[in-house]
Amino acid sequence: AGGSSDGVGGAARFSRPATVAVSPDGSTLLVCTTWALRQVCVAAPPPPPSFAPLVVPPSTLVADLKKTRGDASLPHGPVTFLVGNEEERIEHVSKNLLCVRSEYYGKMFGIGM
After folding, report:
1. Nearest to 92 by CA among 104, 76, 113
2. Does the reported pTM lie above 0.85?
3. Which of 18, 46, 42 lies closest to 32, judged by CA?
4. Which of 9, 43, 73, 77 has the smallest set of CB atoms within 10 Å of its CB?
5. What is the full per-residue pLDDT of the chain (113 aa) written as tens digits?
6. Centroid of chain to Cα 98
């Protein structure tokens, strides 16, 4: 099959192979063609090592919501986020809740942004 692309096994494509080299562990071929050097993974990479389970701390949402009531030092008003390449709008996010729950936003809105 023609074409030119790196890949695993049969998904790799190259035309006119001139030289082939094998990696020391035998998992990868390097194929030199007239115009390119292609990499072919002979075997899928090993699975990632297993890690200890994540420990999720208890939620502080209720306590943080209580902090937003009656604190005149917190900024008021909504914020709109534009997320991703499609710029999806997430509207009506509370500035004061962002400040209480995030050190980053607390500093950002604390300087009047």
Report:
1. 76
2. no
3. 18
4. 73
5. 456 676 666 677 777 777 888 888 777 877 777 777 777 777 666 677 777 777 888 999 999 888 888 888 888 889 999 998 888 899 888 999 899 988 888 888 876 65
6. 22
